[in-house]
Amino acid sequence: MLKIEDLHYSVDENGVRKEILKGVNLEFDDNKIYVITGPNGSGKSTLAKIIMGILSQDKGKIFFNENEISSMAINERAKLGLTFAFQKPVTFKGLKISQLLDLASGTKNNVGESCEYLSNVGLCAKNYIDRNLDDKLSGGEIKRIELAMALAKNGKVNIFDEPEAGIDLWSFENLVRLFSSIKDSTNIIISHQQKILELADEIILLKNGKVECTGSFDEILPLLENNKCGKLN
Q: So what's the pLDDT on residue 89?
């Protein structure tokens, strides 16, 4: 279980502190899909980055399997089984996609294993496995390769920051199927897309840096439509 207690985060804007997260409390159970949604600027990506250790909270605690990880570095959290897929993936010049999959899984993958990871995100391994992950690939291709790396890591908690950003409709349909097939991990997805919201065991709506409400898709959708829970953009 992943647990967040009284999380606060602020930034400096022209000498004035602006609070982004204002006392967030959440619990994520094992092997469930959570979708975090909300208006732009509500703190969704900030929360995800703090969970992974990319940003450090001003106040509050984070627990993973009852052990506090609030002060752990990114690599330490990764060793525990936390993974993160960026909204805008990072490119790695000079490294082949096969090497990145090996690094992600922590072992040397055979061709069949690499093919499976890439096929799961809609890519043909023979066309990609020996290519470099660089700016010659489209944004959608890079996004899918990063998702393949997340699968190769076989994490206990996978965090996906707007995974649908920059991919085409065909890829999006496969992305939905991919998330519905991941069973043996906790998956935290930041998204505005209804088809991804429908996959969630629980939806978390953030508004103005606070948890506005949580619930199933059927519980949350009427509130969003009636603007009782902070209608999305």
A: 52
